[in-house]
Write a structure and sequence with these properties.
InterPro entries: Aldolase_TIM, Elp3/MiaA/NifB-like_rSAM, MoaA, MoaA-like, MoaA_NifB_PqqE_Fe-S-bd_CS, MoaA_twitch, MoCo_biosynth_MoaA/MoaC, rSAM
Distance between the termini: 32 Å
Helix content: 25-40%
CATH class: Alpha Beta
CATH topology: TIM Barrel
Structural class: alpha/beta
Bound molecules: guanosine-5'-triphosphate, S-adenosylmethionine, iron/sulfur cluster
Enzyme class: lyase
Order of helices and strands: EHEHEHEHHEHEHHEEEEEEHHH
Pathway: Cofactor biosynthesis; molybdopterin biosynthesis
GO molecular function, one term: GTP 3',8'-cyclase activity
CATH superfamily: Aldolase class I
Number of helices: 11
Cofactor: [4Fe-4S] cluster
Strand order of the largest sheet: 7-8-9-6-5-4-3-2-1-10-11-12
Number of domains: 1
Number of strands: 12
Length: 334
């Protein structure tokens, strides 16, 4: 039997996040610059290479695959890849196949995703206001995303909304968003903005809205009960006793959840990032392309995991943002 992937801190690696493209139909201000230069096609792993890569990780014990990007649903032929991955669900070697999306293409793809065995989807949505949505995504249209959410729910997908908490931007929508998600039976998770990429527009410190503050505001109106459950992701959840709703908090900067980290990230060019908040990575494309035999690839994966760091380097506590990543979030898929 193949030995599972265990990192130097005895954490089993069972979750692979795969960015299938660096491209996107939006240009969210905290994620991308407006005039992004994207990778030439030949740099990207082909769909067949992505299949081989993911299948190797699954053989090594990965049980959860989250497809992300850029916007995963703008990658040409992406349904062929989902279809290919569904064979691992059928075989019982993969427990969950899922994706994180901006929702713009869900009207077109929701049904196909369900047919490929996807059961839930995380959709990023920071505001319910048309004008603010256009401002924050630069190129997005709120109506299209809302329509995508409808399509996903109609197709039977469980939806979780991810909202980046941004000071002075969506603070005033906290209760509107909670209520809106409650009415639609969708979970809602807030994410603290992270210092990624040299976007040259905003000072991310100005936008940082600590979730401890958001939580305190929620507690003014609701009774919050901490929940133990984990989704295999970094979110901590509370229940709003009055409505029964579940609200998640992803607080990489105020609460370190690294000790139970179970994931690594594969970029669309085949780089394996051992941590979202570190620059260390291993090139897996070279061993993949060097040989049709997976032994060298397996060995490269194990070597990479043996260097997984204990935690991230983000730090908002100094005068300026230390450890700011030069990488864009769209490169590693968040
Ligand atoms: N620092 C840090 N942030 C993470 C990590 N994983 C996810 N995040 C952040 O959380 C955001 C939301 O993640 P999702 O793509 O919805 O995935 P998830 O929360 O892991 O998914 P589930 O728990 O399966 O619903 C990401 O875009 C990141 O901003 C992590 O390992 N470390
Ligand atoms: C990079 S996107 C990729 C998937 C898809 N395009 C989407 O928006 O859901 C994944 C997640 O990263 C989040 N994200 C991007 N930049 C971020 C930042 N600087 N800080 C915190 N979250 C960020 C987005 O809000 C989104 O929820
Ligand atoms: S957060 Fe997602 S939708 Fe927004 S620019 Fe980044 S990749 Fe695109
Ligand atoms: S910051 Fe790094 S070590 Fe911490 S949970 Fe995220 S990926 Fe894991």
């Amino acid at each position: 039997m193949t030995a599972p992937l265990i990192d130097p801190f005895a954490r089993p690696i069972s979750y692979l996040r795969v960015s299938v493209t660096d491209r996107c139909d939006f240009r969210c201000v905290y994620c991308m610059a407006e005039n992004m230069t994207f990778l030439p096609k030949k740099e990207l792993l082909t769909l067949e290479e992505l299949d081989r890569m993911c299948s190797t990780f699954i053989r090594l014990g990965v049980e959860k695959l989250r497809i992300t990007g850029g916007e995963p649903l703008v990658r040409k032929g992406i349904m062929t890849f989902f279809q290919a991955m569904s064979r691992h669900l059928d075989a019982g070697t993969l427990r969950e196949l899922t994706l994180t999306t901006n929702g713009s293409q869900l009207r077109r793809f929701a049904k196909d995703l369900v047919e490929c065995g996807v059961r839930r989807v995380n959709i990023s949505l920071d505001t319910l206001d048309d004008r603010k949505f256009a401002d924050i995504t630069r190129w997005g249209r709120l109506a299209q995303v809302l329509d995508g959410i409808d399509a996903a729910q109609t197709a039977g997908l469980r939806v979780k909304i991810n909202a980046v908490a941004l000071k002075g931007f969506n603070e005033d929508e906290l209760f509107t968003m909670v209520e809106w998600c409650g009415q639609r039976d969708m979970d809602l998770t807030f994410i603290e903005v992270m210092p990624m990429g040299d976007l040259g527009n905003e000072d991310r410190l100005d936008q940082y809205w600590p979730l401890s503050d958001l939580r305190a505001r929620l507690a003014e109106r609701f009774t919050l009960t901490d929940l133990d459950e984990r989704s295999g992701g970094p979110a901590r959840y509370v229940r709003l006793d009055e409505t029964g709703q579940k609200i998640g908090f992803i607080t990489p900067l105020t609460h370190n959840f690294c000790e139970s980290c179970n994931r690594v990230r594969l970029t669309c060019t085949g780089e394996l990032y051992m941590c979202l908040g570190q620059e260390d990575m291993a090139d897996l494309r070279a061993p993949l392309r060097a040989s049709a035999d997976d032994a060298a690839l397996e060995q490269a994966i194990r070597r990479a995991i043996s260097h997984k760091p204990k935690g991230h380097d983000f730090d908002y506590s100094r005068q300026k943002v230390d450890g700011q990543m030069t990488r864009h979030m769209s490169h590693t898929g968040g």
